Batch of 2 targets.
Target 1
Amino acid sequence: MRVFITGARGFIGRTLAERLRARGDEVCGVDLVADPHVDVVAGDIGAAGAWQDHAAGAEVVVHTAAVVSNAEDMAAQWRVNVVGTRHALDAAKRGGAGRFVQLSSVRAFSDTGFPDGVTEDHPVRPDGNPYVDTKIAGEQVVLQAHAAGEIAVTVIRPGDVYGPGSRPWTVLPVEMIKAGRFALPAMGNGVFSPVYVDDLVDGILLAAVHPDAAGQVFTLSGGAGVPCKEFFGHYYRMLGRRGPVLLPSSALIPASGVVAGLARLARVKTELNPISLRYFTRTGTYSIAKARRVLGYEPAVDLSAGMDRTERWLAARGVLGE
């Protein structure tokens, strides 16, 4: 089939495109920078434009493009994560696609306060964090389009996606550990819900064509939560460092607020802020029972195997050296 991917040169978009091409599908897409060798045009999804015409003839549109940050303000995230989603939907409709797959986030449940093993029928919860709130609004945009009969849509809420190319959960933590700027609140006992990128792509491909996935929301994670100190401890081991550094939330979160305040004064954006630190204090996990039941989704890469693959990727790029 022909598949159009927004954010086609990004972490998830690129991995998905490679898998599709490997199995013989035709792939095109849009990103901020073009790559004509793989049929990716340049475009800013925050604005309507000629990039939308490139979706013509695609049977499926997978919308991965987003601002993924705790450092960007509401205006910047709203423009891409919400308005950009409407532009991607318009491109899919005009191009004749039969399915639109929206990449949302488990953060739609809010970063704290959800029950352990939370399921898709649990209410989403805005909490004032621009990323959380715009991901919720983006879901509303596509589900409204589905309800109105504009196009069949499926919403995917990935867990904490790591692996080769992951900026938030692989590249950035390794850089911060090397710089001595990484520490975990809650003494590292917060719950992390990792999903290796290849498992996520498996789930996206299942959801993109399954007839029972239309109009549905699916959480896709690795199926198990682990303490944050266990997950990030893998990176310390790769780097030959002792750690992670574990601190009580009452000390670390206020300190991160000071760091973020100084960064604002210096007009520098930093992911080291209270929003990011509070994310590491979660106490609950995310159920994938619905994805298993409806899609036949089953994660195949456990944390040990995923980290082995990630380590090989980091080593090949010289990231693990001093």
Target 2
Amino acid sequence: MLFVGDDWAEDHHDVEVQDDQGRALRTARLPEGVDGMARFHELIATFLSEDADPSQVLVCIETDRGPWVRALVAAGYRVFGVNPKQAARHRELMSISGAKSDKADAHTLADMVRTRRHQLRQVAADSDVAEAVKVVARAHQTLIWERTRHTLRLRAALRDYFPAALQAFQPLTLTGADTLELLAKAPTPAAAARLTLAQISAALRRARRRDIPAKAAAIAQALRAEHLGQAEIVATAYAATVRATIAVLQTLNTQIKTLQGQVEQHFGQHPDVEVYLSQPGMGVIIGARVLAEFGDAPGRYHDARSRKNYAGTAPITRQSGKAKTVHARFVHNDRLVDALHMQAGAAILHDAGARAYYDELRAREIGHNAALRQLGNRLVGLLHGCLKSTTPYNPTTAWAHRYEHLAA
């Protein structure tokens, strides 16, 4: 067997090839791209016979995605994507001097896959459809997070110079099309006070709001009331920054809606879409995010427990002597944990079994978030069973062992 450490950078890869005794057979710096991959294959071929199995080559690299990784997997090599923190800890075991270089990192990765491959997760090849879902689902979620950040910036700016706007638009949302339209048209207190009922009503109508006359009157009254503020020149400066933030938010709203259509389109092409959509609390967007983060490579998760561990919903136990504590996992996939938390929150509203399990946890004085996390852990196990048997979720079957009365 050959063990290869691949320390990647933006434009090159430092690789080291080791034998099963840990001897360095060859080191090289390869360029990124097709030429670098061809040279990688040539390097490996010098140590393998023509009829050798490519799976005898184990590659360790600090990423699990990208064209380079996909090319390695497609060639038949066994690729292990490791967290940079794991590599850093292994480097500390090998050397206490603190020295670091690209060549030394390649040596560390090769030694790591040679000695600890049983503790590493092998990169499994997801289908092209799953990869496409991952791309659009992550982009969609990233834009939503960006919109939240810009909304908080907008709220902070309004609080500093125009608190009346926050009070006026409280029944709406700062990211709503009508709110952004009115703020862009009148970003200062003086300009907002001059907005007419007709202008406010027109913006509400374009946003398809209900009870427009009452809402327009309330907004106008709040904008014209007396409030503490800033000097006119300071308010004008704030207004310029608010207009810029509003332009960003309007663009984000448009692109989020566009990407949502792409998520729905790609997710709908996956063969397991019906299984995902049958899960309690899981719609198209959450289902696409969960699929994107779990992947669909067969055999990646040996059992429900391994899927739960990857999801970060399974608790961890710390025991020393007589002391024993159970904690939530703090090292996890943030995108997946966020999606599963949202699923659990929706499941207790629409699924009797999920609600009963949640209520049982709350009756034991477990906090809301902790109860949702435990429910999410249970839902991950149900999802694993459904995917394994390609069977849609059945609430009676899922909760029969705990709540037999639900079937009645």
